[in-house]
Amino acid sequence: MIYLIGPMASGKSTVGKSLASALSTSFADSDATIVAHHGTIAQIFAEHGEGHFRDLEVQALCRLRTGVVATGGGAVLREENQQLLSRGTVIYLELGEAAAAERIKGDGHRPLLAGDEALNSWIAVYEKRRAIYEMLADVHVIVDGKSVLQIVEEVLGQLDQL
Ligand SMILES: Nc1ncnc2c1ncn2[C@@H]1O[C@H](COP(=O)(O)OP(=O)(O)O)[C@@H](O)[C@H]1O
Ligand SMILES: O=C(O)C1=C[C@@H](OP(=O)(O)O)[C@@H](O)[C@H](O)C1
Ligand SMILES: [Mg+2]
Question: Which range (4-8, 107-111, 112-116, 147-151) has the least confidence?
Fold first, then answer.
């Protein structure tokens, strides 16, 4: 199992799909799995709160057992998920503030970035999680200024050396 972790908008969902294809294996996204069964992330947060979303995230990750899995940026917060991810290979995509600012402009899908202070929220949330991403990572790629293909090549190169 390969898991992608990292802050919101670092490209976990996008790179994960491409990586799965390069490895000729399946791809799944824990957020997409949750949305398929429970409605949009914004709805879940608004109606039941973040804690409930985290419970659904634990369930979704437990059920995804093959190939490449893109996690949501906050999945690493739960101890159960940290243990699950540790049993697989973990790829951490690091993203800088300037690139994040571009990517989250006009974002309507991430409740934690709602409002006028999206970049500040992104920074604050990332700072709380950075140490956990670093602790879990088997492979660590800084993605700023790189194409999806370049990132996949870099990941494949690092996987070869594990
Ligand atoms: N290497 C990249 N270069 C430019 N844009 C990217 C790259 N990777 C992802 N994106 C874009 O950034 C946004 C966030 O990507 P996404 O895969 O949803 O990130 P995550 O799943 O980590 O939140 C999307 O609009 C996506 O198209
Ligand atoms: O960082 C987070 O807490 C979240 C990240 C999102 O996924 P992406 O990292 O794919 O944006 C999604 O799971 C939800 O909005 C919460
Ligand atoms: Mg995603």
Answer: 107-111
